[in-house]
Amino acid sequence: MKTCPDKMVQYMHEYLDEELPQEQETELKLHIQQCEACRIHFHELKKTIALVQSTSHISAPSNFTEGVMSRLPKEKKKIGIQR
Amino acid sequence: MEELVKKRIKQVLKGDQNAFGEIVEIYKDKVFHVCFRMLGNRQEAEDISQDAFIRAYINIHTFDIDRKFSTWLYRIATNLCIDRIRKKKPDYYLDAEVTGTEGLTMYSQIPVDERLPEEEVESMELQDTIQKEISKLPDKYRSVIVLKYIEELSLKEISEILDLPLGTVKTRIHRGREALRKQLRTV
Predict the structure, then answer these.
(1) For a disulfide at B15, which of A21, A78, B66, B80, Cβ 3.0-4.6 Å?
(2) Is residue A70 part of a domain?
């Protein structure tokens, strides 16, 4: 399990950042086909990203803007209409 | 979008406070979301994201109009989040997570008496789990992971927001991904 070159994990990350050169990408893919530990590692990384990206988008609470506006320092208020 | 924002900034600089309200409207969801994912707690996220806008307003004259406003705003917000995380006592984390969980449930706004389909419950539980694991990351990894995978910002923009060299951002993303991989592998 621990016989894999360290650079393979580095390659995985560069691949995930879309920065792995073609030649190294081929090397990584060949290695992953042969090495189960690295295959699992790579799969887990991709799964992690998918999970983080699956978190739903949440919106600011209602009255958020009013909350901010009411807390702004008053002295700069020169023009504009009060809501 | 950036053009409209720049126009509003110029109005704010002339003393038109209402123009700032429009800027808040445009960015409130993004800023709140970053703060929520960083802090894992809705109340804190609301406080800190409001603080971020107030700080932006007070310091608006220091914003370089030729740069991207969102980068500047994210920078203020992430700095405030990191300060908050560092000020927290370790034993406070547990409370924060519980509150965060409630927040998520509250957010979904489902009446209590209405039964949920099983997969929806599972997905909400999964969302809680993911958020808890993100909250366990050290702040330096958490901020890059949130900006990259939740806000989908480029590495270059992240390096500008966090004022870190690109190489440092990459290293932190790699380590953050490894840490999360270990935490989430059994999910």
Answers:
(1) A78
(2) no
